[in-house]
Amino acid sequence: MVTALLQIFIVYMSGSVALLADTIHNFGDASTAIPLAIAFSLARRKPSKRFSYGYGRVEDLAGVIIVFLILFSAIVAGYESVTRFFSPQPIEHLQAVVVAGIIGCVGNELVAQFRMKVGKEIGSAALIADGYHARVDGFTSLAVLIGAAGIWLGYPMIDPLIGMLITVTILKIVFDTSKLVFTRLLDGVEPEVIDNVKIIAESVEGVCEVTDLRVRWIGHQLHAEINASVEPSLSVEEGHEIANAIREKLLENFFYLSGTTIHVDPLTASGESCHCGHKNLEKIRGKQKNILVAYSQ
Known about the structure:
By secondary structure, the chain is mainly α. It has 2 domains: 2-185, Alpha-lytic protease prodomain-like (Up-down Bundle); 191-296, 2-Layer Sandwich (Alpha-Beta Plaits). The protein has helices spanning 2-14, 17-43, 57-86, 94-122, 125-152, 158-185, 191-202, 236-253, 278-296, and strands spanning 209-218, 221-230, 257-266. A hairpin with a 2-residue loop joins strand 1 (209-218) and strand 2. Helix 1 (2-14) runs antiparallel to helix 2 and helix 2 runs antiparallel to helix 5. The model has no long low-confidence stretch (mean pLDDT 77). This is Cobalt-zinc-cadmium resistance protein.
């Protein structure tokens, strides 16, 4: 926000549309921190009877708001660039424009390093992505310097062209960010996380196999549901100890793991398919098939 405020003053002095696009982008980035801060604040609340998993999903909703804020900044920047392309205006105070570009580059890089550091510490993919987003913003500020150099060399049309280039960059960020946000909303998880959880769980002494595994993000916290098969001769107490050993080992390797649901099965009847009788399972599948046929008709 400090970077954007310094830049807007120079935009008023110089009339540079490339700098205006960069400034709008920085204002948009500053505003994205607001819903994210609210989400992190709500996520600290304890689970309730209505929200038994807590309020971590608010972070994903904040991600949707962030996507639309960035998209709005791209639309405004693009409109101003196209307008200036067809209605060119003289650019003044080129030295000030250069200073503003440098301010934007340095300011965004400092924010990028801070966001990525904190994101890695708390396991927030959204915050890490936001850090890379800020780093890209620093590169767009460098584009402003190219525009200023073009004007100085006698090519004033470079200024609105740089503004359009910045707009395209913002749209690319919108696309990448929306993929991350909507993947989380649909309980999508990186495949390597699933593989690592399975390897760690199966490495625990007494675990014969992990038959079923589901992992999902709730905000920046990870939740795992595991079906682990053990020797059928073990007692309930021994099975319980193995489940605790799985949980402890996962927590050692995934500091952002908030909870685990571990179901211990005998090796002779492992997996969720064994929790329901074959006759009942066929009935359920038959009902599902009838529902799908009726829906299609």
